[in-house]
Amino acid sequence: MPTLTTSVYDAEPIPQDARDEVQSLLKSGDLFRYTAPLGTPAPVTRLEQDFAALMGVKYALALNSCSSAIFLSLAALGIRPGDRVLIPAFTFAAVPSAVIHAGAQPILVEVGDDYRIDLDDFRAKLSPQVAAVVISHMRGQTSDMDAILELCARANVPVIEDAAHSLGTLWNGQKIGTLGKVGCFSFQSYKLVNGGEGGMLITDDDDVIAHAIIMSGAYEHNWQKHLTGSNAFAKVQNALPLYNLRMNNLSAAVIRPQLAEIPRRVRDGRANHDHVAARLNASPYIEVPPPLPQELRAPDSIQFNLVNFSESEARRLMAETKRSGAPVSVFGLHEDNARAFWNWHFIGNIPELPKTRAMLMKACDMRLPARLSRPQLDAIADSVLGAVATIKAPATNLQRARSA
Fold first, then answer.
1. Of 181, 212, 224, 307, which is most buried, counting CB atoms within 10 Å of its CB?
2. Is residue 145 classed exposed, middle or buried when 0-12, 13-18 and 19+ CB atoms within 10 A define those classes?
3. pLDDT of res. 324
């Protein structure tokens, strides 16, 4: 079996422009976003302005994580203790955690074999008691947003998009993260833009941005340094708690020059994904769900389902590919996986979700960063296909013997 000579977890080098700005900040010691004089944009403010322009929205708020963006979105929308918030059952544990942090109760919605929200279960659970919906575009897979947005509009329920994995993805030509009331993005190291940590909240709503900016930690009159032009701040000054979820200037300096790299990374990431998907789909034991017609994805990973695999065979696949340097993780078999809903004990009573559970027990996950070359991608595909062939060889030989 081929061995991959580079780690799929290695990141691209940080651009020289970012390193130069970081060095300048280190020399000045000016790391706090609010030390800049009024009217002079700090590095964090410049990042917010550039990101808002990139996404075509009025407002962007840089934060310390996407989890903070989701929490602040809920708080800014007026979610109160005891409110119910619909979320997909296939997401990262940070999403139900943000709901709990807002004092609300996460209601988990079934997810199908294509990793997308089960619309029948979504309709059934979109009750009058639901105060908000958080749609996680998990691992860059887009659920049917046309149907979801229509249902939520009828129910007058705001939609928050968790687009941590979907920067650069389009839905009917519109940028993911701009479909709902609020969009939330991640700059954690394994995302399209690498800030180590970091997040961004975007919206066109004056009240949402005013609430979110103040609660992010804009004490006294520091909200004026965000240069938003919104007139909604005066009425919430001193009326909201401060959670101190701000981004610092160093993080902004690392992130901002990478915005120019997004088109290339999206293009290369999509080509990488589609190349590996085509190779894996040639196996009768692997299925890579296709994109929806409305969806133009920006993937930095690949997910696929094992077909006719026992649990012991799936565990063997994880072990074999780990040795080759291209590890495959089966969500439901990876111990204490934060994406397996049955590990979210902090939400209280964990519901029975047979569709999502069945999917997670066969759904595989692999990193495919945009920087990988075609030979490296082929080595990854060869590793997976070779491991599958080895594991399934006894069954294949028995089938041939019976046919002889």
1. 212
2. buried
3. 87
